[in-house]
Design brief:
Two copies of one chain form a homodimer. Chain A is an alpha/beta fold. Helix content of chain A is 40%, strand content 15%.
């Protein structure tokens, strides 16, 4: 092995304006060079309590079981499903984009009988439509995506949807991977039972952890399981003992990623959620106005358009792949294309967390203007 | 939320001499403060290729499918099992400590009919004993732990065990969580089909990634599955497409942890595996001699004693919990106790990766001498 072929790490200084990972806050980067301590060190246990308190704030919940899952957002999704599904359970999933599809795939692997409601990518559900299906059949669980990263659409009326689910005896699982920390997510007020997110979007940390919160109602369902959770690594009946008072070893916590998450959340708390949401909105609105001027029309109507992630229709003057390559090569700017039915039709532009700043909007719009000229 | 209650991150400068996490190399800490790039950025794809090449070196394998799983070592164990087990498969697990037990638990969750062979904690298996059981019944998979972190014992004769398994048509899964990078692990020479490890022991990185390697023989078994892998996040039929030529998005790779792993592996390559193994042995031998002098007798006989992790019997003059608390509080040194049948009977002392240095041995022995005086 010729070690000298592996050079010093020296990536280009990318401006990450895609759907995630987003720009990591410099304070988070610094926190990650802090020496590691043990996962059962009293100082680390104290840090875990702080991470939990900060996560409760960002989720706007009092849920005791509020923790970071030791994987990326997809592991959070899987934890949110596998712990509450037993083989043969009826599960209803409202699909309006790729991440809803992924929920269907996961739920089936755990033996659920999955019924799905579908909306075209870019649309959202009317709560009445979901309630109608909930009244037709008894479901253990209803799952949906709050902020669809594949389309840029926000599922509105979460409170009404959750109320309908509870009326019919179903738990509510909500994906807020792209919304948490960037736009209102109110777990307790909306009465969502299980919500999860990721570290690398509006929380300005690298990918690697998935914040998760579980209501007392959902914990009862977990305790009443007749079968073991099919997934060992994500089994909350064991994970909760490490994060709870017992501190029983399950797996070694990713120490440095927890340092990062704590710092990212501390920055959220310093700014304040309301101010942070307003900042995301103000910068998104500036982006939308600039895109309209360039005839890169936002794909989703304003009433349910996400602020941390904007999708825009491509103009005939802008080639999807070549345009993104030029942005990256000439300006060090990353944005993402669409996929599935939206491949080649939209771009996805993120203004998330530390990346949601006026100067980034201005630079991106100026670069796009050059590309289109 | 009163943000000021969360102070600047400032952990005590621990000397991590437990079973992991071990001391992180300063170069790895620095690599982790490198700004993040996208998981589909051409520069990140190039870095993935480098990580794979370096992992092949440390595993001593040519296996194409050699990757870091996006979770801690336990996720590596689960990936090594869930991808190759279908409901009803016969699986044989050789258990000689806690991590063998964990394999049994995991394999059962995936529907395997698990037979187990047992050795007392601290002992190892005779290959003949394993072959005898393999000849009695047709198994799809044999799994065992190379370096038992709960006992400090090395399972010897891996090559013979693997040959017996293949003779009887079984795949071989080997846990090398505590051995990889610190003592000989020769995946190809030993003909092991699936091996996995972690980032936070002899590779001197923080916890968060699990190196995994899969032989062509095992990949055929994966391709021939009749049922989908029950675990979405760890499903290698999808993960291999992101790490392979297709680069199909599965989950967002933990970018910073991959920066860390690349740097940790680069340091391994610079030192060279043989030199690194010799360093671990030399420092372990110095530790053993010092422990003998203090009447803290190593628990495992020299012929199959691990070098990265030493277990020692406690003397009546050294209380387990109080002694470890004093080491931590007075000297900032972390070592670990035993658990399961070895709780209160042994300590576990790691000299792993960057932590395997003469000065650490000297300091620990001097501190122990004070405690015992």
């Amino acid at each position: 092995m010729e070690a000298s072929q592996f050079k010093d790490l020296n990536p280009s200084p990318r401006l990450l304006l895609g759907p995630g990972p987003s720009l990591v806050h410099p304070r988070v980067l610094r926190a990650m060079s802090t020496p590691v301590i043990g996962h059962l060190d009293p100082e680390f246990l104290a840090l875990m309590n702080e991470v939990q308190a900060l996560l409760r704030y960002v989720f706007q919940t009092q849920n005791e079981l509020t923790i970071p899952i030791s994987g990326t957002g997809s592991a959070g999704m899987e934890a949110a499903l596998c712990n509450f599904i037993e083989p043969g359970d009826n599960v209803l999933i409202a699909v309006m984009g790729y991440f809803g599809e992924r929920m269907v795939d996961m739920a089936r692997r755990y033996g659920a009988n999955v019924d799905r409601l579908d909306r075209q990518w870019g649309e959202i559900f009317d709560p009445a439509e979901i309630e109608q299906q909930l009244s037709r059949k008894k479901y253990k669980l209803l799952a949906f995506v709050h902020a669809e990263t594949s389309t840029g659409a926000e599922q509105l009326h979460v409170k009404e949807i959750a109320a309908a689910a509870h009326k019919h005896g179903a738990l509510v699982v909500m994906d807020c991977v792209t919304s948490l920390g960037g736009m209102p997510v109110r777990v307790d007020e909306w009465d969502v039972d299980i919500a999860y997110s990721c570290s690398q979007k509006c929380l300005s940390c690298p990918p690697g952890l998935a914040p998760l919160t579980v209501s007392p109602r959902a914990r009862e369902v977990l305790r009443a399981r007749k079968t073991p959770v099919a997934n060992w690594y994500l089994d909350l009946t064991m994970v909760e003992k490490y994060w709870g008072n017992e501190r029983t070893y399950h797996h070694t916590a990713p120490i440095t990623m927890n340092y990062a998450l704590r710092e990212g959340l501390r920055i959220v708390a310093e700014e304040g959620l309301e101010a942070r949401w307003a900042r995301h909105r103000a910068n998104a609105e500036a982006l939308w106005a600039g895109l309209e001027e360039l005839d890169l029309t936002p794909f989703v109507p304003p009433s349910y358009r996400l602020t941390p992630l904007t999708t825009c229709a491509l103009s005939p003057r802008l080639d999807d792949v070549a345009g993104r390559k030029r942005l990256l090569d000439e300006y060090n700017i990353e944005v993402a294309g669409g996929f599935g039915p939206l491949k080649g039709k939209i771009w996805r532009i993120g203004l998330m967390g530390y990346g949601s700043r006026r100067e980034n909007v201005t630079l991106l719009l100026a670069a796009l203007r050059k590309l289109l000229s």
